[in-house]
Structure formats: structure tokens, C-alpha cells
Write a structure and sequence with these properties.
Layout (H helix, E strand, L loop, with lengths): L14 H16 L4 E4 L4 E3 L7 E16 L2 E6 L6 E2 L1 H6 L6 E14 H10 L1 H101 L4 H12 L5 H13 L5 H9 L5 H8 L7 H39 L7 E3 L1 H11 L7 E6 L6 E3 L1 H18 L4 E9 L5 E7 L31 H11 L3 E7 L2 E8 L12
Amino acid sequence: MSPEEIPISGNALSDEGLDARLLETSIALFGEEGTRTYRDNEILLREGDHPGGIWLVIRGHVELFRTVGTEEVIFHFESAGRLVGLMSLSGGQPSLFTARAKGPVDTLFLSDGEIHRGLAESPKFTTCLLGAMVRSMARRNRRSAELLVEVHALNQRLGAKRDELQATLEHLQRAQEQIVASEKMATLGNLAAGMAHELNNPVAAILRATEFIAGDLVALLGETPGLATAAAALPMATGQKPIGTAAEREAKARLAAVLDGDRALAARLFAAGVREPDELARLLDVQPGIPRQDRIRQIERGGEIGSSLRHLGNCSRRIADLVRSLKLYARDESGPFEEVDLNATIEDSFTLLSGKLSGITIEKEYGEIPLLPGHSSRLQQVWVNLFVNAAQAMNGQGRLAVRTLLRPDGWVEVTVEDDGPGIPAEVQGRLFEHRFTTRGDRVEFGLGFGLPISRMIVANHGGRLTFESRPGHTLFRVELPPRPGLSTTEPS
């Protein structure tokens, strides 16, 4: 093969064969005076120096590195090849790398003058040198591309780690905020427990006084001439059970029919505890000797007193239950369940919230449901939370419908429905998170304990609290078993 036929690329000669041909040609031209030997880790060329020629590596390996800061970054080892100083030779620039022997290294150094002479005098040397240079540059370019790919992949991994660390940092910041808030709530809980202890005695006294007043008033009115009708009407108002909206309308219509169509008077008598015409007739027959109008006035006044006493007793018991709940909570205990009239707890909740619900149309549909085991005050807390949330969602105007029913499987179901704007779909999954609220037409971390606590209370009674919502319709459903631990599966 003539010198001109030695390929620069391709498979005619391997890299080792081409390097051997270059070494053979160089020794033939310039002799072996340029032969040099280097020990392990000895420097052939430092970055920034002008090499003044190139080294042909006869035996051993050389690594090329640069110092970045205080660290050495290796760029080429296997890809360094048999030519050292090649980039400086081709560009006439100071060396970009430091060349260091890795193990014993034998080289043949060709000075710039020898290289120029060989290029001028020997086509074979020229072909071999150009071929070795092209292949060496190709290896280093390929290695540079591989390094670029590795750097890009490393940057991607670093970016993912950075995002992960940022998310972790934000999570820790939120956790720290929640810990601070929990500490505040724990302090508030201790203060509340102490306050509950202080309130216990006066609340008990109010409750006893309410019961005594009711009995004394009935006795006093009954013994007072001309007030027997009021005395008979008072206990009727205190003992009436709540009825639904439709049943209330029907009862008022029946009363109005026997009152010559006087709907206003029928409404007042209904508020005084009179539900049926025969009840009104019995009260009117208590004192037939006094004018009818005076007897009706006594029924109204006696019923108003009875209704007020009933509300006073309910509120006193509500406070007493709350005080007991605070004390139980402070001791991390649970009191025994009692038999609860669920419809009554809902009606009492409406009484407590009469001011907050004044602009809202209330629809009540109470089904025939049995007494359930539970804590009446805590269940009432659930209704209060749901009613207040609905009122706030509707901005004080709209329709609030409450229904209770006994299902065929024995479970009791309570639904609270409003026609407000609905809960945005993007926050529905977070509705039961602690300290999460959508009040004020914005999503924020505030007190936000109402719904999580309500779900916990329902779960402690063996039931579950769920909801469905879309624009113009939000419905919360509470499902309670007839007795705790009825089933380990979710209610149907």
C-alpha cells in the first residue's frame, strides 16, 4: 500500500495499526533521540504551557485533566489516544489540558521543527500523521459529546432533586406552621378545660333553677284565680316534639279552620305549643266562664312562657353538655352513650341559630326514627357546623332543607341541602383537611376545624359524613347506625 493510500478513516488500518505506522515512520525519519520515559503520575505537559511539539505514546497510558477550583476534572483517558499535545499543535495555542502518566509511559517526542520537516519531506509521514490526528480528534469529540449528554442527564437529575427538595421544604414549613398552631390549640384546650371546670357549678345551678321555675310557675298559675288556662298551656309547650315543615303548615291550616281563617292567630298558637284543634278545645274548656278572647290570650302567654322555659332548659343542658365534653376531652376520655332523639337535636340547633338563619328559608322533613345511642351535644355540634357552613355559602339568603329518615337496613340518614354556589371542584378533595377553609370566596388556611371535627364526631358514632356538590346544589349526608359497631363495612 503506497503512503497516499493509507486511509484517514475506515477499517483498512486499526487505530493501533495506524499509530504503529506513524511511530515507525517517525523513527525512520528522525531516529530515537526524542525517546523519553515517564514515571507514574509524572507530568508530560501542563495546561497553559506551549508544548513545542507532540508526544507519540509508545507504551502505557496518559490522562488529560484540568484543575477546576481546587479539584482535578479528568476529560480524557481511554480517549486520549497515542498523541499528546495534538490540540496545541493544530491550533498553535497553549495547552488546554495537563497530561499525566498513569503508570510507566514511554514516548517519542517530535518537535515542531521535526514535524514541519516530516510534512515537507515524507508523504508517508504526512498521511500517517493526518490519519492519526483525525482519528484522535474524532475519539475526543465523541467523548466530549458523551460528556455533554452525561452533564445534561445530571442537570435533569439535579433539577428533579431541586424540585423535590423545594417541595420538602414547603412541606416542612407547613408542618412547622401546623405544629405552632397545634401548640396554640393545646394551650387553648387547657384554658378551655379550666374554664369548663369554673362553669360547671353555675350551669348546673341554672339548669336546676329552670326546672324549679317551670314547676313553680305551673303551680302558681294553677292556684291563681282566672289563670288556670295559662297553667294548662305552659306544660304543653314544654313537651312538644319538633315536626317537619310540611306537617307544620298542615297543623297551622287545621287550627286556622277552627279560628275562622285567622292564620296569624293560628301561627301564634302553634308557637305556643298547640298542634291540633282538639288540643285547643281542651284548653278552652279549662275555664269556660271567662271570655274566649281572654282564654286564647292565656294560652298564648302560657305557651310563650313554656316555650321560653323549654329553650332555656335546652340551652342550659347544651352548655352543660359542652362543659362535660370539654372535661372529657381534657382527660382524653369518652363518656357513655345515651339515648338521643335526633330530630330534637336538629330542632334545638335551629333554635340556637335562629339569628344566623333569619334570612334563609328553612324546610324540615322529620321522619319517624328511633332513639339512637350517642352524645346529643356532639351530634348537635355537627348540625350547627353544617347549618352555619350552608348559611355562609348562601350569604344569608337561600333555601336550606333538612331531612331525616329510617332506611330499610336500620341506618338513620340525615341530609342537609342548600342551593348555594356549590363547592369548587378543585378544593373538594381538601374539604375535610384541618385548617382548610373556603370562606370569604377564597381558599385559605384558617381555623377550618368544623368539617374535620364533624366527620370525627360522626365516625365516633359508627357512621360516616359525605357530600356531593355542584353549582346551585350542595348536600351533606350523615349516616348513623342503630347501635355502635353494627357493621364493620361502610353503610350502603
